[in-house]
Specification:
Helices cover about 60% and strands about 5% of the residues. The protein is mostly helical. It has three domains: about 90 residues, Fumarase C, Chain B, domain 1 (Orthogonal Bundle), CATH 1.10.275.10; about 240 residues, Fumarase C, Chain A, domain 2; about 100 residues, Fumarase/aspartase (C-terminal domain) (Ribonucleotide Reductase Protein R1, domain 1), CATH 1.10.40. A hairpin with a 2-residue loop joins strand 1 and strand 2. The termini are far apart.
């Protein structure tokens, strides 16, 4: 009985949907909400207008539109754009998406000529176009944000890069490095993110318009012209794939997820390094918070939130891939939710990149704390083993000898540099007094040889490289 009552309620069709000629029943409110995507895809309105302007111009050039019709449509679209920007366009959920909102507003503004705009076009290729235009801008914006963060790390490396600090493996002190080497490690990670986005942009930058719903159209559309007008170097080759492809969004989500992981690793490092126990990094107060109860607290909350955003990036990627994995060709309505995943992934990374450069640019290294603790942890043990190698001792044997010397020094609360020469020579007669020039973190970083190592000489080389690369 309830079902019949609902059917009677929805028997009238007044929505003016693009498919109202086929269906006569109107969706109830709950169904309309399910069908609608305006809460998300309204963000595409500028791209939808741009695509429509190009499509209209091409239709005029192939004489599907008269000069008067084209002039009306162009002026109308620009007027709709201004109205949307001013918040003066109604977006009822009955119209479902931004494409129909714009078309409806256009027809209201200019009359029947507005109904000709959709000639040779489906919402399937229309939304594919809008998403590619959006993704193209999104990738460019992320690359710019990454470059700004890279510059901040390079700046810190220039300011305090020659400070000798520990490098860690397993979160245990490993070998000494100059601090700039650690800063530039993040720059390298971020460069891979920028390169990955630039590579993804190649596959994003393909025009799907003209593919129609699934099989193209019998109208003589000039796809090359539309692509040219929209700044695409080429157009898609297969209408089925063009309307159902969301690889480019999944790839963008992956780029965001990987960027988020890199930013999370940096945030984790600095959360630890800024703690009292480490004291390697001092964060500016503007990027910290305190406690509602404990007045002494200085919490690295911005870094913790950046670390947390990586979870969202990974989640959006998994959501996108899961959404697409079982869809038959070609377009399916499931894909309406692709925007939720892609938009959120990009939004999260944009929010992080808006803050991260300031965190780095305003931070400083705790030079006094670093210097006070630098001799702890036998950071020069590997250097001593390599000293023995240069004296002709096989590395594996040298490794064992130094391990025993470390144990002796630890038992006596001494550094390797402080061990008596008699003790060193008893362990290995090949050790001579020149060993003192090889021990101690400051000496070790001077002796790194290969390019890409953690010494001062290599830092200078790397800074010159990044100056050329980043400007």
């Amino acid at each position: 009985m309830a079902a019949k009552k609902t059917a009677r309620k929805t028997a009238k069709s007044k929505t003016g949907k693009s498919w109202h000629g086929r269906l006569t029943a109107e969706a109830d409110t709950a169904t309309a909400r399910l069908l609608a995507s305006l809460d998300v895809d309204h963000a595409l309105w500028k791209y939808d207008i741009a695509g429509s302007l190009a499509h209209a111009k091409m239709l005029r050039e192939i004489e599907v539109l008269s000069a008067a019709e084209y002039a009306k449509i162009k002026a109308g679209l620009l007027g709709v754009a201004r109205a949307i920007e001013a918040g003066r366009v109604d977006m009822p959920i009955e119209l479902e998406d931004i494409h129909m909102v714009i078309e409806s507003a256009l027809i209201k503004r200019i009359g029947p000529a507005g109904g000709k705009l959709h000639t040779g076009r489906s919402r399937n290729d229309q939304v594919a176009l809008d998403l590619r235009l959006w993704a193209r801008d999104a990738t460019a914006g992320l690359v710019e944000g990454i470059a700004e963060l890279q510059q901040a790390f390079v700046g810190l490396a220039r300011r305090q890069g020659k400070v000798v600090m520990p490098a860690y493996t397993h979160l245990q002190r490993a070998q000494p490095i100059v601090a700039g080497h650690a800063m530039l490690a993040y720059v390298e990670m971020l460069q891979r993110d920028a390169d990955r986005l630039a590579d993804a942009a190649v596959r994003i930058n393909v025009c799907p318009l003209g593919s129609g719903a699934v099989a193209g159209t019998s109208l003589p559309l000039d796809r090359a012209r539309t692509a040219e007008l929209l700044g695409f170097p080429k157009f898609t080759r297969n209408s089925i794939d063009a309307t159902s492809d969301r690889d480019f969004l999944a790839e963008l989500c992956f780029c965001c997820a990987m960027l988020g992981v890199h930013l999370s690793r940096w945030a984790e490092d600095w959360i630890i390094y800024s703690s009292t126990e480490f004291g390697l990094v001092e964060l500016h107060d503007a990027y910290c918070t305190s406690s509602s109860m404990m007045p002494q607290k200085k919490n690295a909350d911005t870094l913790e939130l950046i670390r947390g955003k990586s979870a969202s990036g990974i989640a959006q990627l998994v959501g996108m891939l899961t959404l697409m994995k079982g869809l038959p060709l070609a377009y399916d309505r499931d894909m309406q939710d692709d925007k939720r995943f892609a938009f959120q992934a990009v939004k999260d990374m944009q929010s992080v990149l808006a803050v991260a450069p300031g965190i780095v640019a305003s931070a400083s290294l705790g030079e006094e704390k670093i210097a006070a603790d630098i001799d702890a942890g036998f950071l020069d043990a590997t250097a001593l083993a390599e000293y023995l190698v240069n004296k002709g001792v096989p590395f594996r044997k040298a490794h064992g000898l130094v391990g025993r010397l470390v144990a002796q020094a630890e038992a006596q609360n001494l550094t390797l540099l402080e061990l008596p020469m008699q003790t060193l020579q008893k362990a290995c007669p090949k050790i001579t007094p020149d060993v003192k020039q090889h021990l101690g973190p400051a000496n070790v970083v001077k002796r790194y040889v290969p390019e890409g190592a953690g010494g001062a000489k290599q830092l200078d080389q790397q800074l010159r490289y990044w100056k050329r690369k980043l400007g």
